[in-house]
What does this fold into?
Amino acid sequence: MACRYFTTTAIVIKKHQLKESDLLITLLTPYQGKIVAMAKGVRNIKSHRLSSLQLGNTIKAQIYKKNNYQWLSEAKTTNSFLKQPKNLVQSNLLFYFLEILNQLIAENQQIENIYPISQNIIKSIQG
It folds into this structure.
């Protein structure tokens, strides 16, 4: 049974609730492109990972692959979009931009310079 760990920086571009305490997280990474990972138990009240997994956050993520699935084991925020109060226009711009990213990039597709360009756009939206 092959198990492979890797650590990467990533931008949280989508999250989808699966079960009561699990999330399916879509991340944009510098080298792996867009990846989808399962965050097991992240919505439990004791979980410290949920605050890191807010849309638009840049995180340092530890991910492992097992049985053709990717699992998020750790997530630490390096830049939080919502750390300062934002107005509605900024929030809407961010969500719209993240939705465009999610629609345009296929899973595991690597597009040159998309990660740094996306970071710059998010910083511009932050103000």
Remarks:
- The domain at 3-126 is CATH 2.40.50.140 (OB fold (Dihydrolipoamide Acetyltransferase, E2P)).
- The chain has one domain: 3-126.
- The longest helix spans residues 88-104.
- The radius of gyration is 14 Å.
